[in-house]
Design a protein that fits this description.
This protein has 211 residues and is of the alpha+beta class. Helix content is 30%, strand content 21%. The strands form 3 sheets. The protein has a 5-stranded antiparallel beta sheet. Strands 1-9 form a two-stranded antiparallel sheet. The chain binds heme C. The site of heme C has 21 residues, from strand 3, strand 4, strand 7, strand 8 and helix 4.
């Protein structure tokens, strides 16, 4: 009995970790990762508010402060922008946004305007989430298949009409409706993009391109 229990313990002790590590390796392979879909929709076709986006790739933080926009910026005030990891890898390889790309824009208020580093705008509190998803299948009638969502405090959101969001993106954004002109992280990783300035940050640009 004791012997039996012991051998079971040994078996579990030696085989389980192997099995588990095997599972981890399979999950981490790039081929699988490229297929991962990060934009989740409910049965009604509403986008479910993503939860783990702070673990995605952070591409930039434009800020439209109240005191420079008559107290009423369209998106108050910092916009922390993230892209899902699979679409980031695709962008680095191709310079295009794959079908299924999702961006999350997390709004944060301006908090302090002074710190020990100087005067400026420092992030205060979270104030809302918006997102953009590209999908040929779901949004075949939308401009370039991009749909835009604003969450407020709700867990799901419906796609906005094109003239509410997409029209401005189409008219003004540099890369397939995405404002890459405001995201040096995206520009640095785009294949064939010439850096405007060498020097600071150049090392990481080469890194992003895998050089
Ligand atoms: C008048 C122009 C304009 C309108 C209308 C607009 N946006 Fe944007 N959007 C921008 C600009 C400029 C940026 C990038 C700089 C920034 O965040 O201020 C941006 C960035 C974004 C991003 C980050 C990814 C990207 O494309 O750069 C998301 C997500 C987004 N907007 C969602 C929305 C949603 C949802 C709506 C409609 C409710 C909307 N936008 C309406 C101008 C606009």
């Amino acid at each position: 009995m004791l012997k039996q229990r012991l051998s079971r313990k040994i078996l579990l002790g030696s085989v389980l970790p192997l099995l588990l590590s095997g599972m981890l390796v399979t999950q981490a392979t790039p081929a699988n990762a490229l297929d991962t879909v990060y934009a989740k929709f409910n049965k009604a076709g509403e986008l479910v508010r993503p939860v783990h986006y702070r673990e995605w790739i952070f591409v930039g933080s434009p800020v439209t402060p109240k005191d420079m926009n008559d107290g009423k910026p369209a998106f108050p005030e910092f916009h922390n922008v993230y892209i899902d990891p699979a679409s980031w890898r695709y962008w680095k390889r191709t310079g295009k946004f794959r079908d299924g790309t999702i961006f999350v824009l997390e709004m944060v208020s301006v908090g302090d305007k002074k710190s020990s580093s100087g005067n400026g705008y420092f992030q205060g509190e979270f104030s809302g989430v918006a997102a953009a998803v590209k999908s040929k299948k779901r949004f075949k009638d939308k401009i370039n298949n991009w749909a835009y969502f604003g969450f407020g405090d709700k867990p799901t959101a419906v796609a906005q009409a094109d003239d509410a969001c997409a029209a401005c993106h189409q008219a003004n954004a540099a890369d397939d409706m995405v404002f890459s002109q405001h995201y040096p992280v995206l520009r640095a990783a785009k294949p064939g993009e010439k850096p405007k300035r060498r020097g600071i940050g150049q090392g990481s640009m080469d890194l992003e391109r895998g050089q």
